């Protein structure tokens, strides 16, 4: 199964007694390339501050910036380290089990577990945009939670009086079909029929209110 890495397998073993078999892994990723240059600039700022804060070790030394290679290397590495911290929100997955969906599972404190009984099946809908922008940014609701990292497609559904959005560059069709199959396996025939309008994806052209 694509996307079934060691972390997913660990969660699968932990939740299998409660949710049953893992059916599908939807992936979402977004690399913040626009943040690279600002992070490098901050790295050089930190490097410059370090040059002036660090005392000159000897009167024979030329003074500050006497080792430009070390200065540039340390500054670039600092910038790359700062940029690397953006990766914490760059990769997201949505796991479809027999008994529900799971997201943000890297830690038990942040894990989101939504059983099928909590979801309004008729609210399940695939979304996309004509210009390739993130559909999540066009959705408005009193309570909305983003589960994905971003993308040109999205799956939205309502549960616990909240709209949940998983945006990704992947085709939403396999995800919707996996949800429908899991509902079918759970014996929720009425819910499967209620999700029949989830496809094809609705093309958003402007601001859309979910409530």
Short description:
With 211 residues, the chain is an alpha/beta fold. 32% of the residues lie in helices and 27% in strands. The strands form three sheets. Strands 7-9-8-5-10 form a five-stranded mixed beta sheet. Strands 1-2-3-4 form a four-stranded antiparallel beta sheet. Strands 6-11 form a two-stranded parallel ribbon.
* Main sheet: strands, sense, barrel: 5 strands, mixed
Order of helices and strands: HEHHEEEEEEEEHHEE
Arrangement of strands in the largest sheet = 7-9-8-5-10
The Rg value, from CA coordinates, equals 23 Å
How many individual β-strands?
Answer: 11
Count, helices = 5
What would you say this structure looks like, in words?
Helices cover 32% and strands 27% of the residues. It has helices at residues 6-19, 36-53, 68-84, 173-185, 189-194; strands spanning 22-29, 91-97, 100-103, 112-115, 119-129, 139-140, 144-146, 153-159, 162-168, 202-204, 208-209. The model has no long low-confidence stretch (mean pLDDT 89). It starts with 5 loop residues before the first helix and ends with a strand.
């Amino acid at each position: 199964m694509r996307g079934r890495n060691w972390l997913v397998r660990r969660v699968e073993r932990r939740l299998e007694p409660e949710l049953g078999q893992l059916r599908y892994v939807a992936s979402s990723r977004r690399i913040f390339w626009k943040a690279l240059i600002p992070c490098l600039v901050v790295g050089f700022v930190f490097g410059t501050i370090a040059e002036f804060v660090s005392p000159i070790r000897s009167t024979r030394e030329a003074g500050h910036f006497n080792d430009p290679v070390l200065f540039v290397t340390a500054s670039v590495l600092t910038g790359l380290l700062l940029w690397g911290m953006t990766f914490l929100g760059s990769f997201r997955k949505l796991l479809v089990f027999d008994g529900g969906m799971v997201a943000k599972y890297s830690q038990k404190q942040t894990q989101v577990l939504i059983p099928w009984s909590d979801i309004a099946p008729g609210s399940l809908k695939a979304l996309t945009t004509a210009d390739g922008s993130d559909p999540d940014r066009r959705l408005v609701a009193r309570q909305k939670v983003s589960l994905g990292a971003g993308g040109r497609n999205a799956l939205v559904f309502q549960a616990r009086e909240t709209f949940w959005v998983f945006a990704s560059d992947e085709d939403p069709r396999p995800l919707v079909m996996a949800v429908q199959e899991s509902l079918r396996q759970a014996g929720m025939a009425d819910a499967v029929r209620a999700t029949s309008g989830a496809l094809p994806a609705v093309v958003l052209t402007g601001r859309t209110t979910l409530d």
